[in-house]
Amino acid sequence: MATPAPSRPSRILFVCLGNICRSPAAEGIMQQKVKERGLSSAFDIDSAGTYGGHAGDLPDPRMRAHAARRGYRLEHRSRPITTDDFDRFDLIIGMDDMNIENLRRLAPDADAWTKIHRMTDYSRRYAHDHVPDPYYSGADGFELVLDLLEDACDGLLDHLAGTDE
Ligand code: 4NP
Q1: Domain containing 154 — which CATH number?
Q2: How far is the CA of 162 from the centre of ligand 1 (A)?
Q3: Which atom number of ligand 1 is nearest to the Cα of residue 131?
Q4: At residue 150, does pLDDT exceed 80?
Q5: N or C: which end of the chain has fewer CB within 10 A?
């Protein structure tokens, strides 16, 4: 894939509620995909939650186990989003309506507001309009999250590389 060399890394922050299921999985998947494309140095990828109650925790063991079966090691430590993140990152990508609403409430200015996007806006193969919270779901919920995130990360990468239609 021909990718224009960016002058500085694209800084992407994935955001969900607890930062122990969806957003750390998105972070791990995206990191793996940029690595596979030889683009690790072109990206700065992180994740955060709008709720800080799990701060310092590794991802949920169920999310780690399902991700590990697909070859992703999730070792992010949960952290709450801060106002500084709106300066530090170029794209702030929420998983569902509640995440987007919370992010818009936290955005310090109009520039920050324009950085907020929805993960499923980058979907290619799925028509879902959000990545559902798997916390109270069974194994199927975690598998669906991974399916949606893998697909949307591909779409996001193509979008950033300018190779999407
Ligand atoms: P996440 O999932 O937002 O994908 O990390 C959740 C994690 C924890 C809780 C809810 C959702 N919780 O209620 O503690």
Answers
A1: 3.40.50.2300
A2: 33
A3: 4
A4: yes
A5: C
Residues with CB under 6 A from ligand 1: 16-22, 53, 133, 135
**Per the domain annotation, does 84 fall within a domain?**
yes
Which residue range is the domain that position 79 belongs to?
A: 16-161
Render pLDDT for 78-135 as a digit per residue (tens, 0 to 9).
999 999 999 999 999 999 999 999 999 999 999 999 999 999 999 999 999 999 999 9
Q: Whose CA is nearest to atom 7 of ligand 1?
A: 18
Ligand 1 pocket test, pick from 29, 51, 57 with the greatest ligand atom count within 8 Å of Cβ, gives 51
Q: What is the DSSP track for 77-143?
A: PP-B--TTHHHH-SEEEESSHHHHHHHHHH--SHHHHHTEEEGGGG-SS---SS----TTS-HHHHH
Domain count for the chain: 1
Q: What is the pLDDT of residue 165?
A: 62
Position 2 in a domain: no
Distance 6 CA to ligand 1 centre (A): 34
Q: Give domain status of residue 31, yes or no.
A: yes
Distance separating alpha carbons of residues 143 and 136, to the nearest angstrom: 13
| 137 assigned to some structural domain | yes
Q: How far is the CA of 109 from the centre of ligand 1 (A)?
A: 27
